[in-house]
Design a protein that fits this description.
With about 280 residues, the chain is of the alpha+beta class. It has one domain. Strands 5-4-6-7-8-3-9 form a seven-stranded antiparallel sheet. A hairpin with a 5-residue loop joins strand 1 and strand 2. The protein is elongated, with a radius of gyration of 19 Å. The N and C termini lie far apart (about 50 Å). About 35% of the residues are buried.
């Protein structure tokens, strides 16, 4: 066998923060994209569904965080090699390592996948994914690979923090896929997961004073009450900063691994996501 599996550690169950009691599933890709007035594909919803956030606040339609990457050269001949190098930078979760899903679409997002494989029982590394994809990928295709990485999440009173697996989606867009979708979204893209795992809730992190919303429910009220306690706020700051550092470390690995022309770190809820993260890191 030419491709290699990632062997998962012998954990029978992953305990999610807040004991929400259900796994968060990635929604179908076609449900996350729509068309603009010119018929071009645009994202109309997050790659991940609404859920209870790990800090105990109802996330509703929780904002997501992304990295879009444009490469200096990205041809059909180099596409898989560069996607392999990109996948090789992923910092796998300790409890859920490996790539657990592969989906390949041709022409545009409305088409049925030309190849789809659930790999949760047999996670693969980057080389394994490329081995599966090599007969299906052309410059009119998009690949979606899913995995997990570990981030700090919060629960309880007094506040507790633990590192738990968070879902990742990694996209590779051929230059002739869906009316040059890559022009606006990048040759490569990462969906990191929930924005608030890096920015925090309620404007409690950072230097600048952010207008804090009036609590809309008991969970939000409880969160703000918890953050009024110095020990809780300090823990929340420290662990959120560690999440930011993990994200920036990963971006630096990507920059070293690929011939990048430009990249954009962004989110659905922040006007300048990267600046917001830098501000939180700079706060004392």
């Amino acid at each position: 066998m030419r491709y290699s599996a990632i062997h998962k550690p012998p954990h029978s169950k992953i305990r999610w923060a807040g004991e929400i009691g259900r796994e968060i599933f990635v929604r179908d890709a076609e449900a996350c994209f729509g068309r603009d007035a010119f018929g071009r594909q645009i994202r109309t919803a997050p790659l991940f569904p609404s859920a209870v956030s790990h800090s105990g606040i109802m996330a509703g339609m929780a904002n997501q965080a992304y990295l879009s990457i444009w490469l200096k050269e990205f041809t059909e001949e180099s596409m898989l090699e560069q996607f392999r190098d990109f996948l090789g930078t992923v910092p796998f979760s300790a409890k859920q390592p490996g790539f657990t899903h592969l989906e390949i679409r041709a022409v545009d997002s409305t088409e049925t996948p030309v190849y789809e494989q659930d790999l949760r029982s047999f996670p693969l590394d980057a080389a394994g994914i490329i081995e599966l994809a090599k007969d299906y990928v052309h410059d009119d295709c998009s690949c979606d690979v899913r995995s997990h990485w570990d981030l700090w999440v919060f629960e309880g009173e007094p506040l507790m923090a633990q590192q738990l697996p968070q879902a990742l989606s990694l996209l590779c867009n051929g230059e002739h896929y869906d009316d040059r979708f890559w022009k606006d979204n990048g040759h490569l893209e990462v969906s990191f997961g929930f924005e608030h795992l890096f920015t925090g809730h309620g404007g409690v992190l950072g230097i600048r004073q952010i207008a804090r919303p009036v609590p809309q429910n008991q969970e939000e009220s409880d969160f703000l009450e918890s953050m009024a306690k110095a020990a809780n706020l300090l823990l929340y700051k420290e662990k959120t900063r560690e999440n930011i550092k993990a994200l920036f470390d990963w971006v630096r690995r990507i920059e070293k691994a690929l011939p990048i022309e430009r990249l954009r770190l962004w989110s659905e809820g922040e006007e300048n996501f990267e600046a917001r993260l830098e501000e939180i890191l700079a706060a004392r």
